[in-house]
Amino acid sequence: MNPQQMAAMQAMQGGKQQVYVLNRGQKSDEGKQAQLGNISAGTAVADIIRTTLGPRSMLKMIIDMMGQIHLTSDGNAILREINVNHPAAKNLIDLSRTQDDQCGDGTTSVIILAGEMLQVAEPFVHKNIHPTTVVKGYVRALQDAIQILDKELAIKVDLKDYDQIKKIVTATVGTKFTSRFDDLMCKLSIQAVERVKVEINGKYEIDTKRYAKIEKIPGGSANDCCVLDGVMFEKDVLHAKMRRRIVNPRILLLDCPLEYKKGESMTNTNLVSEDDFEELLRLEEEYIKKCCDEIIKFKPDVVITEKGLSDLAQAYLVRAGISAIRRLRKTDNNRIARACGATVVHRTSEIREKDIGTQSGLFEVRKIGDHYFTFIEQCRDPKACTIILRGGSKDVLNEIERNLHDAIAVVRNLYLDSRIVVGGGATEMALSKRLMDRSKSIVGLEKLPYQAVALALEIIPKTLADNCGAKTIRVITNLRAKHAESGNETFGINGMTGEVTDMTTLNIYETYGVKEAVLQTAIECAASLLRIDRVVTGIDQNVGAAPNAPSTGATPFGHRPKCWSCSKCTFNWSNTIWSSSKMLELLQMHL
Questions:
Q1: Catalytic residue numbers?
Q2: Please, which residues have CB within 8 angstroms of residue 156's CB and are 6 or more apart in sequence?
Q3: Which residue in 25, 44, 189, 284 has its CB near the most CB atoms, within 10 A?
């Protein structure tokens, strides 16, 4: 008698009928087992990138599914290339992606802090403290931490002080691969944000993702990187006789084709005589000539379209002395419109004088290496730009791009919220000290998870000390002693030496927005994972299989499971070598 039959017999004896809710083969973890599994998964993800925090961080070499090699210390770039199966681990990886999209920095810190928040909750699970009580303590600690951060630890920055902004960006870039080019990275990031920022009703609108494009060109050195006062894209003019350099050009942008109209899917035309075909050609030529005449009437110097441009249209434009570029990406077209003051026109019949862009000082096509690039620069008050990166190899360029992305995000966050906090783990230790003091007034079990959040915040200075090879226990003890004294809230870990140092003397700062997002995202993610009391996985390959079916998995051709119990199947299922005749027989019987 198998275990299922025994269980059914015992249920019948008790007067109750046994009911199967889940399909056989589905895996379900409940209660403490599910919570401990989530905690272990979160801690494992945090351990992957724990050594990439700080200026002495280690690099990770990742080979993706396509065989490409990624060499980076960026937390989001590492987790993006890792495939995981556990749902809690996937949740934490999405957490890093969200942090990168929202703030652009703090992707490593948020994963490390979330993993530690889960780790300190493990004793509560073993002691059978209800998750609601733990989550309540976590949420209360988060609210107090945000209040302390806002009222006591935040510092206001003058956005007109270039040196102060440079110090903040340098502190961010100093932990990256491009730390030896920190002056260059600061200059590029500040210039890029200054180019694209738009002030509306006293507030800044900064869309660096759409209007500050990074172009990577292999070759040269990192010192050749620059921010254009305009845009650049990899295109060349269509005709050899078109001008490649124009001073103060008049630019017309289109998103309609300058060629004969084509059918959407299939077009049938009945031609009765030879004159009918000539009539079709004449109509096409008249249509293209009409479009070109409507363009030439406004005397533009450059015409750029997102769609096609026929040879006949090229001939008309060359005669008029107009340079043309076709099949440009819509995103690039929008950047050109924002940089030179033009408006993208949908039909040639709708062109107006105000749609012509006249704010550019130079249009020029240049050859760099084996490729031609079009430059539209020297724009007056451009609201879009292109950042040119040069480097010896693609790996170097990719890492510079990731570091520059973080630096631009720091400057953007400063313009959106001009407050900063002290870095180097000083802010986390100050929050830990104040939360511990406030926990003395809390009564009940809620006090324990509240104190656990305070202890978990120390993971940031601990990790900084670990990564630079310092004696962690002694350094953290000295740091606690420093923060026990009043007026020492700015003391943290020197990431280069592992010593307890005043971070204001090293000019180590972080933006308030990043720190607030790290705390809020990490604690809320840990609280949501702790509230999970059941994890149900999907159906595996053996669902519905007969008791004596092979355990190695699926049937041939991925056939439905009921074939295991089919009376027509007479061959041995456990045999792993299949002849073509047997395969054909199986297909004929069941498909």
A1: 74, 107-108, 406
A2: 418, 419
A3: 189
